[in-house]
């Protein structure tokens, strides 16, 4: 990457050039979209309408956290939980899921733009989203997952040539709070790509609770590049002398530089045992917990 200050200057000029009127900016609360928001604010300030879509596929407390983080700006929060769940109904194929999510996102942005006579959208796509989508690895929700007919004059992607570690450097330079600049990545399609098969309310609730436990046990002590829980299939177990056909939860914790490759974190056995016992005790319909040993490649970081 060119020098940080030069990049920032060029990105601001690019936004000024490309956004020829009022512009929607898609905020998720992560580092990528937050960096874009700061750059866009410097470029076109009062022409900007920030918007956050609550997909219902977020982690516990996410929407409240975003409301709090951005309390000083006029952030539009769209509740689209029902719509995402409806559009995901019956879909089990990972690529179809990603496409359904990408399409739902963009249609909501289009509707919100139309209401305000807005024709430009800024989103925080980064370079790996593009290469993984174009290389056929997986359709990231903001690139390969998008439909071809999009009703915006232009989608502006100011950081689409950067890797995650470079975005973090810019975030530090722009003095974003460390909770944002150092924040663990969370994928746009959210918990949907951490649930194998159809996304349902019941699965979402189980994986969300498991994810909270994993974050509580691993984030602070081990500072992984990324860690989370995923929900696989069902397996037989026994709880309180009763046979339970419950969910299997997989725990993932990796180190990485830019997400393009990743190594599995070598966790102490006691830590893994504590996570297992908390998940099976605190979530009634989970009967089994696995730790994913696989680096990237051959696995990807997310399960779908
Ligand atoms: P994978 O699973 O491809 O993940 O090894 C690499 C990094 O990218 C994140 N990821 C996504 N981020 N939209 C995003 O914004 C997506 O569709 C998407 N898919 C994966 C993933 O969490 C990891 O940090």
CATH architectural designation of the largest domain: 3-Layer(aba) Sandwich
CATH class descriptor of the largest domain = Alpha Beta
Tally the helices: 10
User: Numbering strands along the chain, what is their spatial order in the largest sheet?
Assistant: 3-2-1-4-5
- State the domain count: 2
CATH topology of the largest domain: Rossmann fold
Query: What is the general shape?
Result: globular
Q: What ligands are attached or bound here?
A: xanthosine-5'-monophosphate
What's the total count of β strands? 9
Q: How far do the termini sit from each other?
A: 30 Å
Classify the secondary structure makeup into a structural class.
Answer: alpha/beta
Low-confidence region ranges: none
CATH superfamily of the largest domain: HUPs
Characterize the largest beta sheet: strand count, sense, and whether it forms a barrel: 5 strands, parallel
Share of helix, binned: 40-55%
Helix/strand order: HEHEHEHHEHEHHHEEEHE
């Amino acid at each position: 990457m060119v020098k940080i200050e030069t990049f920032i200057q060029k990105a601001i000029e690019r936004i000024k050039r490309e956004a020829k009127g009022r512009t929607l900016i898609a905020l998720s609360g992560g580092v990528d979209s937050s960096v874009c928001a700061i750059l866009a604010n410097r470029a076109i300030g009062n022409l900007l309408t920030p918007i956050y879509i609550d997909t219902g596929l977020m982690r516990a407390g996410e929407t409240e956290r975003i409301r709090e983080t951005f309390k000083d700006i006029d952030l539009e929060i769209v509740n689209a939980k029902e719509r995402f769940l409806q559009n995901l109904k019956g879909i089990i194929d990972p690529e179809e899921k990603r496409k359904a999510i990408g399409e739902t996102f963009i249609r909501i942005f289009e509707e919100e733009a139309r209401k305000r006579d807005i024709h430009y959208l800024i989103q925080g796509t980064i370079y790996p989203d593009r290469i993984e989508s174009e290389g056929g690895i997986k359709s990231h929700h903001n690139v390969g997952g998008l439909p071809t007919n999009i009703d915006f004059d232009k989608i502006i992607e100011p950081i689409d040539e950067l890797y995650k570690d470079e975005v973090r450097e810019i975030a530090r330079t722009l003095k974003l709070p460390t909770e944002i600049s150092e924040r663990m990545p969370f994928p746009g399609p959210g918990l949907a790509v951490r649930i194998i098969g159809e996304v349902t309310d019941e699965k979402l609730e189980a994986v969300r609770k498991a994810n909270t436990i994993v974050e509580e046990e691993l984030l602070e002590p081990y500072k992984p590049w990324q860690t989370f829980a995923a929900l696989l299939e069902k397996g037989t177990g026994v709880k309180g002398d009763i046979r339970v056909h419950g969910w299997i939860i997989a725990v993932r914790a990796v180190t990485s530089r830019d997400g393009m490759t990743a190594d599995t974190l070598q966790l102490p056995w006691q830590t893994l045992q504590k996570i297992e016992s908390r998940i099976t005790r605190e979530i009634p319909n989970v009967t089994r917990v696995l730790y994913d040993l696989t680096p990237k490649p051959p696995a990807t970081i997310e399960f779908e």
